[in-house]
Amino acid sequence: MTDQNIINLRSADPFADVTGSSASDSGATGGAGGQRSSNLIHIRIQQRSGKKTLTTVQGIGEEFDKKRLLRAFKKKFACNGTVVEHQEYGEVIQLQGDQRTNVSQFLKEIGICQAEQLKVHGF
User: Fold this and answer.
1) Strand partners for 82
2) What is a single molecular function from GO for this protein (predicted)?
3) Global confidence as pTM
């Protein structure tokens, strides 16, 4: 019972489901792990230090300007953030705090994606 209460203290790879950590997934993806779910937008939360968290948004198409999206996120959610270039996943948006529900609602409202294209991860 106590193990279930402390599950969020384990260190885990937040991108493990995209990369396909098992050997059977690597054959099905055809190489690059990020290409497997190119039509899904992944919204994750990562624990920083103490109770500080970081929200990452990965998988937004190349046709959208991520810096303009970041500017809209920062203004609407009153938080800070940045766009990080990841060697495997491309451009990833990082926001301070737990913004998972805000980001998912915002992306659906402005029409970037449908509800079935969003995958929200976290504890």
Assistant:
1) 94
2) translation initiation factor activity
3) 0.68
Tokens of 120: 């929200």
Per the CB < 8 A criterion, the answer to whether 39 and 112 are in contact is no
pLDDT, one tens digit for every residue, the chain (123 residues)? 555 555 555 555 655 665 554 444 433 333 333 333 458 999 999 999 999 999 999 999 888 899 999 999 999 999 999 999 988 888 999 999 999 999 999 999 988 889 899 999 986
CATH of 2-120, one of 3.30.365.10, 2.40.160.100, 3.30.780.10, 3.40.190.10: 3.30.780.10
CA 65 to chain centre: 16
